[in-house]
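Database export, one record per block. Field names are fixed; values are copied verbatim from the stored entry.
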Amino acid sequence: MTGPRLTIIRGLPGSGKTTLGKILAKDFGAEYIDNDMWFGELYDLWSRKKNKYAIDWCKGIAARTLFRGGSVIVANTFVKLKYIDEYYEMAQEFDAEFSVLEPRTPWKFDPIACYHCTLHGVPLDHIKGMLDNWEKIPEGRYK
């Protein structure tokens, strides 16, 4: 990698975001972060209300890394494009390259398979709800 880069990895719980993100971070010398890191071993205490703090934490780490000239990979569900847009604006502010990736696992949009793969016990109805609300990225949106 040359210069700072901000990479977003989006996907349902259990789709392979963490695996992909950690491999890429190691290969490219980037920092890897996700909401799960904020919760740590207390993930079973997850709540929508507390999740906003994890989201803000990820944004802060990403901004600090870019400010220092580093590259960062942020993996979260990013179901709605408005959440990706916030990171796109951040990348522009720090003159960083920006990209959005999704795992290429064959089950990435299969809620039952994702349910069986998630490490955090995300309920199947939550995963189905995320899939129902999934917003596709229009061609050319993040150029």
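Remark 1: Residues 80 and 135 are 6 Å apart (CA to CA).
Remark 2: The chain has a mean pLDDT of 92.
End of record.
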